[in-house]
Amino acid sequence: MDFDLTEEHKMIRDMCRDFTADVIVPRAEEIERTGDYPYDIIAQMAELGMMGIPISDAYGGSGGDWVGMHLCIEEISRGDLTLGALLDVTTSVVAQELEVFGTGDQKQRWLVPIARGEKIGAFGLTEPDAGSDAQSIRTRALLDGNEWVINGTKQFITNIGLDNASLIIIAAVTKKAVQGPGRIATFIVPRPSPGFVLGRRYDKIGWHGSATHEVILEDCRIPGDHLLGDPAKGFSQHLSVLQTGRISIAAMAVGAAQACLNESLGYARERVQFGKPIAGFQAIQFKLADMAVAIELARNQYLKAAWLKDQRRKHSFEATTAKLFASEMLERVASDAVQIHGGYGYMAEYPVSRFYKAAKVLQIVEGTSEVMRIILSRELGL
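The chain above was modelled as a monomer; its predicted structure follows.
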């Protein structure tokens, strides 16, 4: 087995690492404090081709692979998790769903500007009464002549509040069933569209640089050709790209955890107590060692899942494992990082406090830890 990255992968990793250190890290605390969306940083990410790494060059991407994409997401997340989330939703979920299931015309119109980073995409599955039980969505889409008329509410939608967000891909019921879920299809809903209402911006405990909004669809009309993929398989389409999103969440968690470890190593070497740097105390050394082990295991698992995807091999177990382990790992690592910093770790100007606040949500988005365990139980034949 060859665990070496290719030269192309190393170039992507190093480019994103340098960009994060030079551009994102100096602004990260300000972004979190003000909640202002960093459009200038997003534009620079687009210029470097980050949104289109795994997308075909025929549709505005660079024709790379998913290992390269997730190395990028890890490095960007070292600076700010919300920018890692922007890449997850835009590329791993929205761009992929357009590329895999879209028609040629849909790809030219919608995928190309997203892969180039000129526009940002959003993904709409969750509803007020449909979270983990995603099949219970109530949003309805009815065909009226040559148009689809959509009614419903989507919540916790990442990216849609950005000025350069061009569309949201939503799931909606097109045919009710007597029992159980009805037939679910996916639709491209441009922003703006008649009947599209951008709802409230959520007041979150962290991730203030991420545009998270409610979306209300009130007799929202879109052309008939905005149906995406097979009208009978919309839910499975959504689930297939969310599997990649889980690899992305794992990569985000690894990036943030690595940042916590790096900050803790630096602090422990400089902070003097009882006459010597606290890095000389075994209690601190063991925490740092455990952090490093957990990060390395999580990194290897997300890279394995991404590699299997690139090889077009089954990777549900690996992607689910990566997401579950890495997201829970980050919460532990961030907590230990705050503990190592002591009182300073609870101060806003120290990066570990920001990652500590941000860590929990990774156990919720793209499938909760409980849902991940359900999936793994099924993989085990239980």
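The domain at 7-119 is CATH 1.10.540.10 (Butyryl-Coa Dehydrogenase, subunit A; domain 1).
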